[in-house]
Specification:
Layout (H helix, E strand, L loop, with lengths): L8 E11 L4 H15 L6 E5 L13 E12 L4 H14 L4 E8 L2 E5 L4 H15 L7
Length: about 140
């Protein structure tokens, strides 16, 4: 299987945030589950990165970022669209997961407590920016 040249790769940083009542075991379990689902995609690599504690000056927020995945994928062939759709589907099935933020080249889309239509519009705009040849559904 051809996974493309390095020049054709995108790097996506994926941050998973959980509700404040989630514990370390929940965080570890959910990160493993998300990584396992993403491993079924045609990605070049998936690396788990542990997020550090929030800065001392950070304001308290509802969700807590518990970890990160760094994913390398081909810029062509629909892999990016499959990644975003997998993240959106996974998030919808996890009660403790409150938000997933995906960043590519400094551009971030957050999948969280929005209506399905709002999430769809955000994701479609993000996909168009990073996969301009994509046809709208």
């Amino acid at each position: 299987m051809d996974r493309g040249d390095a020049a054709e790769l995108l790097t996506a940083n994926i941050l998973l945030s959980l509700a404040t009542d989630a514990d370390a075991d929940d965080a570890e379990r959910l990160t493993r589950q998300l990584r396992a689902e993403l491993s079924e995609l045609d990605l070049n690599s998936i690396d788990v990165v542990r997020a550090g504690p929030p800065p001392d000056a950070a304001k308290s927020v509802d969700p807590v970022t518990v970890g990160a995945l760094v994913v390398a994928l081909s810029a062509s062939g629909g892999v990016f669209t499959a990644l975003i759709e997998t993240l959106r589907d996974w998030l919808s099935r996890q009660a403790a997961a409150k938000k997933i933020a995906v960043t590519i080249d400094g551009d971030t889309v957050e999948l969280e407590r929005a209506t399905a239509a709002e999430r769809g519009a955000l994701v479609e705009a993000f996909l168009q920016r990073h996969n301009p040849g994509r046809r709208r559904p």
